[in-house]
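Entry for the shared binder. Reason: the reviewer on the internal report wants the predicted structure included alongside the sequence.
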Amino acid sequence: MVIPIALLDVTLTLYQHICFRVYGIPRVKRSDYVVIDRHMLSYLNAIEKLNCVYCGYGNGVIAYGREIIARTEQFWCPIKHASKAAGEHGRTEKFVEYGDADGWRARLPALREDWNDSSSEQ
């Protein structure tokens, strides 16, 4: 899985550096999500350290990607689903209710500017 995760990492980074600049979406700081530090623990053996590097990288890239996609969703389609999806990201709370056409048109411009929330601070 290292190769697919690394490919995802590269493509996510390219995507946000190109598309987010075009649309004025604040970029996600990769180093806030990809943290590799547990391999420094002296009580871990070599295999455990390698596993910690892999898990820190893999989980970090997935979290990084989730925030990039959450910001994309907030910009293009900030509408809640008709039924609650498991594991929704924190940005969903501010989205327009499903079926609220008037709210969609009225709130979309503000939602495209409102990047201050807890999910972007993590």
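Summary line for the report: Residues 2-121 form one domain.
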